[in-house]
Amino acid sequence: MSDTELRLIAASDPNWQPTRRQSELAVELLSRSHPNISGRFFERVQLVDSGGNWEGVYCSSCRADAGAWWGVAMEAAYAKGFQDLRIVTPCCQASTNLNELIYEPPSGLARYSLAISSPETFLAPQIIEKLEEILGVKLKQVWFHV
Known about the structure:
The protein is α+β, with helices and mostly antiparallel strands. Helix content is 25%, strand content 33%. The chain has three helices and eight strands; from the N terminus they run βαββαββββαβ. The longest helix is centred in the middle third of the chain and has 13 residues, at 67-79. The N and C termini lie close together (10 Å).
């Protein structure tokens, strides 16, 4: 197993999943330059985080550190199968959802990811654009480190 993975997830819709064919086409495109790539479908929404790179999570409205309350909010969402991600932030009373918080480095909630083992760098913008066209969704890059 590699020490790092680049994971691509839907930027804003945690429940989004591509068709099997879309996933195959995306894997095919990336396999030309990245031999260790897989499309991963998850039964339910899960946190796709940065692993050992994790620095923290912040309110998307006021940028306050959300570390003190984020874990409790995630546990409550998990208990409901991540079907309701809406929250009101304790710091500034903003209505938002757990996926819209600012994760450093970028992380997010998803039911699908493209995972590249041991990449050398983030994907170039033109590759991301091609993938977004194939998949029909805007993507977020999550750099995972064990």
